[in-house]
Amino acid sequence: MSDSVDKDSKTEEATEKKIRDTIEKGQLPHSKEIAIFTSFVAILVYTVFFAGEAVAELGAFLSNFLEKPEAWPLGTERDVIELYRAVMMEIGRAVASLLMLLVVAGVGASIFQNVPQFVGERIRPQASRISLFQGWKRMFGVQGFAEFLKSLGKLVLVIVVLTFVLSDDHRRLLAGMITSPVAFATVIRGIAIDILVAIVFVMAAIAVADIVWSRFHWRADLRMTKQEVKDELKQSEGDPIVKSRLRSLARDRARQRMMAAVPRATLVIANPTHFSIALRYVREEDSAPVVLAKGQDLVALKIREIARENGIPVFEDVALARSMYKQVSVDNVIPPQFYQAVAELVRVVYGNKGQRRTP
């Protein structure tokens, strides 16, 4: 019941991250029918292009062996080994091309479906792979039953097609039995090719259907619940609470750096309580006044307090303070539209300093 409820709740398509993680774990859609189809294609190619010559050579060897047994003495153990080795070599030459074609077909089927990659997770020992209970579930569960029905359907389809294709071949077989062995071998080869062609066409249809189904089923298994999508979004973008805390810490550090810079200010522009802007201007260093700190409400009051403690003049100008607060940035020079107003205040500051120096 819980499994069905869980599947029903997975209404969202898999995200790119989940698909990428699944692929990295080696959990890719795979169709066994593609490998079977390519194997039959390899056998068909062998039968059409290689089997005739290979079987002829093998038949000639066996014929020579049967007609001239005296050429193969079996008096000692060494003679038996030599005969065994010769027979195996002839059989090996006959089927070597078939084995190579089957290997190429298997590798090609794998590459056709997915790009080869090494995945350590696939070879890691897992208890579920040797568990009798898990094995029983795989064999007799829903997946096992589906595989059984698929195999049964393939068998029925192949039998029907072969019955139709070979309906007239029994006459060829009977006619070939009264001919020479070489001609009869040709008849057998022709019938085998008919059988393989029919099987290849049947397996091609089954393979196409199976690869479509396997990819659809893979996508369906990757579906996510709404909560899983939300959790993944949180992980990818960061927890909002943590991000808010980090932003708060960053603001605190920036505020501390501003307050530490206020004692170096040349003057502070403020309205009575709401805004304060600390500016520094040294003719030899700066082309225009630089904003060291700015603040509103409690921060503004703190800037004014530090300025008074360090003997920095504070000019109260409501309009100028409000306008500058919105348009200036800390550690940047003031915009050109404030040059004249600030220059007058700087002139006052330097004038007062000159008066203090005069005895």
Provide tags for this entry.
359 residues; mainly alpha; name from scop; 4-stranded mixed β-sheet; 16 helices; 4 strands; disordered N terminus
Overview of this protein structure:
With 359 residues, the protein is mainly α. Helices cover 71% and strands 6% of the residues. It is rod-shaped, with a radius of gyration of 44 Å. The N and C termini lie far apart (97 Å). The relative contact order is 0.08. A four-stranded mixed beta sheet has the order 3-2-1-4, sandwiched between helices. The chain folds into two domains: 151 residues, no CATH class; 111 residues, name from scop (3-Layer(aba) Sandwich), CATH 3.40.1690.10.
Largest sheet, in brief, is:
4 strands, mixed
**Annotation, overall tally of beta strands:** 4
Beta-strand content estimate: 5-15%
Estimated structural class: mainly alpha
> Topology as H/E string?
HHHHHHHHHHHHHEEEHEHH
Low-confidence stretches: 1-5, 355-359
Q: What's the short story on this structure?
A:
It contains 16 helices and 4 strands. The protein has 2 domains: about 20-110 and about 165-225, no CATH class; about 245-355, 3-Layer(aba) Sandwich (name from scop). A hairpin with a 4-residue loop joins strand 1 (about 265-270) and strand 2.
